[in-house]
Amino acid sequence: DGKKSVTGVWLATNAHVVVGHRDVKVIESGQSWLATVEYQDTASDIAILYAKGLSLPNIKPFGTNGLQVGARVFAIGSPLGLDRSISEGIVSALRHDNG
User: Fold this and answer.
1) Which of 19, 26, 35, 63 sits most deeply, having the most CB atoms within 10 A of its CB?
2) Is 40 exposed, middle or buried (0-12, 13-18, 19+ CB in 10 A)?
């Protein structure tokens, strides 16, 4: 949106992880950065954070076109400090939310 510095990263997490907080600490490779909760939607359990000064490789965003029930999906994160963990799942259903 042009309001944020280019020397930071946008991150997505679950809203239940940051609920009630405006700022959170992001830890990567033993270092920590302050991240601001920019958006959260508890109904869909998604939150968007901005961590100024943090540098991470970019991930190309993708849409849901072509996503089908039964497709393999992956979640990458650090739950409870378990750094860079990955979980695998299967799409069990598709739904439209606000179009």
Assistant:
1) 35
2) buried
